[in-house]
Amino acid sequence: MDIKPVLIAFLAVIAVGAEPPAGTGPGSGTPSIPERDLIDTAAIYPDYEILVIDKPISKDATHRPTVVAGEQIRSTERTTALEALSQESADIYVSSRGAGLHGVSSGASGGIYIRGLGGSPNSQILVVEDGAPDYMGIFGHPIPDAFSPALIDRVLVIKGGDGVLYGTNAMGGIIAIENKWPGNNGVSLDHDAAYGTFNTFRDRISLFCKNGAIDAVGGFSSFSTDGHRDGASGSSTAGQIGVRFHLGQSATLSLRDKAIHLNGGDPGPAFHPYTDRWFEVLRNTFTGRLKMSLIDWNLSVVPWFNFGEHRLYDGFFSRDYTAGTTVEATRSFLDSKIELLLGAGGDHIDGLVTNRITDETETVKPMSGGSAYSQLSVSPKPGLTLVGGVRAYYSTRYGYVPLYKAGIAWGVFQLLTLHSRITRNFRQPTLRELYLPYPTANPGLKPEHATNWDAGIELSPRFLHLSCSVYKTWAQNLIKYFGMWPSAEVVNIDQMEISGIEGELELKAWNPFRFFLTGCWQNVGRFTKQNPGAKANVRGEWSRTMAHGVLVCAVSGEWVHDIYMNNYCRDQLDDVLVFDGSLRYKAVSPSDITVEPYVLVRNLLDSQYEYIKYYSMPGLHFLAGLRLGI
Amino acid sequence: MPGLNNRRILQRRLFPAAVFIFFSLLSCSIMQPEVVVINKIAPQVLIKNPCINGIVWNTVLKYEEATSPRRCMRGQGKVHFQKFDPYAYCVRQVEYGLIDTLCMCDTAAAIKDSSIISATPLWYNYQTISSTNVSSGGYSIIEITLDDMEQDFSVPGPYGH
């Protein structure tokens, strides 16, 4: 029996029951308390009084990261959480192929480009969750569909990379995810279920519990869809649990585990759909974190262990492991005018690859690395911050690799900030590129290096935020894939330069309207494969306070220009222009139950567009849901 | 009374909202065009796995046989399919001596070297020459004919990851 309609109906019944009692409803006489006093948009989602461990925006004050709140990701009109990040900054580009899942292997979307680096595969973009890197060991890239937003507090997208603080793979950028912990004693629950076109069902539950010195969190999310065409169906299930112990006044120990199971397939080009090219992914990530203050030092120890199994229709089977530990110590001197960060870390990657049909096993040699790093921040006068850092990385395969960075941020006036940063980053080849025939092995590959520079200006008067940055990347030995099996090549290319400019405009205090616009233009040179030349995102929001809650109507749009399926400007795709919309009614009952029915309308203009050639995106479609917070 | 209030809320807010959402969801499905493909090539020709605009019928159609109607994405597209001509195949098998006799064909001199031909029937990729524009809410019957088909070399390699 299909339980989805029953569950939706059940939630609808709860929603009716959760409405405020008679006497405060419309048409029932004058409310005892003025309605506008009862309703406060900020009170609708107090975020369950969540505290975040690392509250400073970034460890490097000269970073200008894109900060996306977890709430924003969970309520996005876009199809996936990664696309929600792309919506917030024009220099982040994420490809898509359908109504929910990005997939893995051939035909997958979810390639993340940040300022022209990254893409398919995403091994130049590092995803860090609660201080621990999260990537598939053998293929060396994050799994796009493993980005589960149920417990996320906020996400920082650090553009331009930071190899000094994050090590290998942090070349194009870092997506740093911080999860939530409960703040006050008690239990809170958030449940969001939605159903829509293409038999799409989405369910998220998050539970927060605090009892004295112990915090506990749990999250579950499930997604399934039939897809908008044959072969595009799929499902994902993710579960997370975490517990944090307060050890006295100045120490906490937290343990988290996240498991994810993905099922789906490559639907193939629209004119030649595949219905049997399935994949199955099972991954688990364990992260610990010990934070403590020792004399004048703040210490943080983060061990992690990540493993996964991938199965494909053609017999491919892989099991990969990554494990490591990072130790960091920070201390302030001279009334916080000088901050020193010292760190050390090590990781180990191993795995096995077999073909279950032919029973052939590929030889994969494990890789290990260790590094020591430091960062010094100096604030000689208010508003001026200088940052410098170095990392010495030692790889068992490539030996010693030096990395460095330097940055400056200067608040010229209270409203105006100038900033500039230069970083030297690197990525070591993945086990796949070295040893596996996908599409071909090349054990002679050298590590990639990139020097990223940016400079920008920010203007933040009370009613708007305006920023503009120019950036340039000089990359050497980038690993590129050419041709197809059996004539494929995986080689280092000598030199590549990327330059671009991006800007943002946000109108904040024009109630009841909000408006956000971001745009980016870049020159990526010859390597144009899935690396667009220009992109813009827009979002407009209108809200109205009503009797029992707040009605919020939002429209967001994306325009992508100069997308090519191949390097050297070959196989150009039409520009993407797509708008999504949402309508939400956020209400809080006197018993503090939040009820939020909503409708997401995707592709409002019913445009025909595609990010990947012949992988046409769905037309107009809907998702209707109900969210409850207790 | 709370019960009455709930009923009023149900009537005035949730019911219209539910109706709106129901018809919105329904309209998305109805808007997708329906397509039928008919094999009109020749009496002895079979076609397999015809597909257009994101849908594929995993079936074999004999002459004048039609697929069931199915909804697909709107837009312009060609029908791609695999073609097999059993008559030509059998004639070749007789020519190369892999089968003894075949009615309807001459008794050509049999070549006893069976290694030069595979006994496995081969389905070749074909596509229609003309494109069909299937629009939202439409219903299209596409007939595949002998003078509107060509070999299909368009199947791309994997996009890669």
Mean pLDDT of chain A: 86
What does the overall shape of chain B look like?
A: elongated
CATH homologous superfamily placement of chain A = TonB-dependent receptor, beta-barrel domain
- The number of helices of chain A is 7
Name the average pLDDT of chain B: 78
Strand count, sense and barrel status of the largest sheet of chain B are: 6 strands, antiparallel
Reading off the top of the CATH hierarchy, the class of the largest domain in chain B is best stated as Mainly Beta
Give the total of beta strands of chain B. 11
> How many domains make up the 3D coordinates of chain A?
1
- CATH fold descriptor of the largest domain in chain B: Immunoglobulin-like
Instruction: Quickly give the structural class of chain B.
Output: alpha+beta
Low-pLDDT parts of chain A are 1-55
User: Largest interface by residue count?
Assistant: A-B, 53 and 43 residues
Oligomer: heterodimer
Distance between the termini of chain A: 29 Å
Number of domains of chain B: 2
| Largest sheet, strands/sense/barrel of chain A | 22 strands, antiparallel, barrel
Report the strand count of chain A: 33
Please bin the fraction of helical residues of chain B.
10-25%
Strand portion of chain B? 25-35%
Strand residue content of chain A: over 45%
Family (chain A): Belongs to the TonB-dependent receptor family.
Membrane topology (chain A): Multi-pass membrane protein
Domain TonB-dependent receptor-like beta-barrel (chain A): 203-585
GO biological process, one term (chain A): siderophore transmembrane transport
What does this structure look like?
- Chain A: Residues 60-174 form the TonB-dependent receptor plug domain.
- The complex is a heterodimer of chains A (630) and B (161).
- Chain A is mainly beta.
- Helices cover 7% and strands 56% of the residues of chain A.
- Chain A has a 22-stranded antiparallel β-barrel. Chain A has a 5-stranded mixed beta sheet with strand order 1-7-8-5-6. Chain A has a 3-stranded antiparallel beta sheet with strand order 2-3-4.
- The longest helix of chain A has 14 residues, at 4-17.
- Mean pLDDT of chain A is 86; it is low at 1-55.
- Chain B has 2 domains: 1-29; 32-151, Sandwich (Immunoglobulin-like).
- In chain B, a hairpin with a 2-residue loop joins β2 (46-52) and β3 (55-56).
- Chain B is elongated and about 85 Å long.
- In chain B, strands 2, 3, 4, 7, 8 and 11 form a 6-stranded antiparallel beta sheet that branches. In chain B, strands 5-1-10 form a 3-stranded mixed beta sheet, with no helix packed on it.
- The interface between A and B is large, with 53 and 43 residues.
